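Write out the 3D structure for:
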Amino acid sequence: MPRFDPHPERRTALVTGASSGIGAATAEALAAAGHPVILAARRVDRLEDLAAMLVADGAEAVAVALDLADPTSIDACADAAVDLLGPIDVVVANAGQISSSTALGTDPDEFARNVHVNLLGSQRLVSRLGPAMVERGHGDLVFVTSDVVVRPRPHMASYVAAKAGLEGLARAMQMELEGTGVRVGMVRPGPSNTEQGTNWDEATVLHIIPAWERWGLLRHNGALLPADVANAIVAMVSAPKGTHLTLIEVQPEAPVLPDRSHT
């Protein structure tokens, strides 16, 4: 029986933002499931360390540089991925960048860069790799979005706008690719324990948190682990043919309260 029955026996996956967090966890989970993996991100040294670890565990894995704000880098990554591990059957567009500025307070060039990283770069990448999937009649395109699409957060305007655009792109692609054998899915995580936002200084955090509290966006302090989101991504691409998981929303479970009298 083929390894991925009823899918093709070899399903090479490309994961963006694979140098840390959700991307790294997804690459590990896909490799454990038998997928050859292309690790793509800007921090190539981290990618190479992760690729070496996966190879030592018996997987096929290679590192490829990728800057989603640079069209030349995106094109080179797409070409290198196919050259190194053959046709790509799974693309996980996970890389993201969060700016803590407001809609009116963000420098327009910085706003544009954030949109490039979170939206336009992913569109360019899948436009390079998706047509071959359509020609073969098989593939999965997975976009990691964010719950800010349905629960926008102030002081994250460029991220909110770009992720909303990413979901719009994915939904349009779902309709356009229906009947081609190529599935398009979205995994929408809630608050997650990753490196995103960890470069914010204390003053920024203290300024933003009250605004989030005012809009009821901090109901509890639970956070997803990268592996929690990675498991949802693997479930999406592993669904049998004839099944299309269009959206998986993952939220952290609230910590158990010491007083359970309300139950």
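Residues 108-136 form the longest helix (29 residues).
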